[in-house]
Amino acid sequence: MAEENKQKTAEIEAKIAELNERFKDATAEEVIDWFLEEYKGKIALSSSLSIEDQVLTHLIVEKDPTARIFTLDTGRLFPETYQLIDRTNLTYNIKIEVFFPDYHEVQRMVREEGINLFYNSIESRHRCCAIRKLEPLRRAFKGLDVWICGLRHQQSVTRKNMQLVEWDDMHGLIKVNPLINWTEQEVWDYIHQHHVPYNKLHDKGYPSIGCEPCTRAVKPGEDVRSGRWWWEDPDKRECGLHQRY
Q1: Residue 179: closest CA among 197, 165, 200
Q2: What angle do CA 163, 241, 119 make, to 5 degrees?
Q3: Is 242 within a domain?
Q4: Structurally, how many domains does the chain consist of?
């Protein structure tokens, strides 16, 4: 069994290396077009409604309006985020799938640690993220081979070593980051050029938007994700959706 696992790991690593080599000079459009065609029916965009994911939504709908796009409603999102879901659906004539956490687990967590437990410790914050994000994400991933993400190197120290194509061992999926090398300015240029709908909180100093109690505005020049879980060390500010390398 150990030898089998070793061989499987080697095959996966070889495939990921091959894909990264194949698309090292490709545009985001070329990457998306190929993966949507190659993995049709087995691929989806996991959207947080970020500016990156909004760009990806635009690119995906242009290629295949029937491709799956889903988001996670943690129950603690900003009103502006809910409004953006509706605006995006109307703009592109699509229906973004919305996945919710298991209310039994949410009730148990709140009963045991309080409604705002995430401020108490990293462990409690991770528990909240696991219940509100990771569990519904696992359900959303059923039947998929590939998930598309809006990760960029420039976003934070935790993402500087991520690649265009990766193997997500936690979920057993290929993860594709078509905008991995884009700058924030390039993302905004695309949004304005193509009139892509975006969260209005971005105009109020929120470059990265998650749950309302875990997100704050940042000052000019600060790291774009410094407003997420700002009470924690920078190298711990991930929710667990994305592995660190």
Answers
A1: 165
A2: 130
A3: no
A4: 1
Nearest Cα to Cα of residue 128 among 152, 105, 98: 105
Q: Decide if 244 is inside a domain.
A: no
Q: Under a CB-based contact definition with an 8 Å cutoff, are residues 210 and 129 in contact?
A: no
pLDDT in tens, the chain (245 residues): 667 667 888 899 999 999 999 999 999 999 999 999 999 999 999 999 999 999 999 999 999 999 999 999 999 999 999 999 999 999 999 999 999 999 999 999 999 999 999 999 999 999 999 999 999 999 999 999 999 999 998 765 555 678 999 999 989 999 999 999 999 999 999 999 999 999 999 999 999 899 999 999 998 877 777 888 887 876 554 544 545 43
Q: Annotated active-site positions, please? A: 239
Q: Which residues pair with 168 in a beta bridge?
A: 173
Largest Cα span, the chain: 54
Gyration radius of the chain over CA positions: 18
Question: Would you say 212 and 77 are in contact if contact means Cβ atoms under 8 Å apart?
Answer: yes
Note the pTM of the prediction, 2 decimals.
0.88
CATH number reported for the structural domain that contains residue 122 in this entry: 3.40.50.620
Which tokens is 130 given?
Answer: 């696991």
The boundaries of the domain holding residue 25 are 2-236
**Contact (Cβ atoms closer than 8 angstroms) between residue 94 and residue 65:** yes
Matching residue, tokens 């892509």: 196
In a domain, 241, yes or no: no
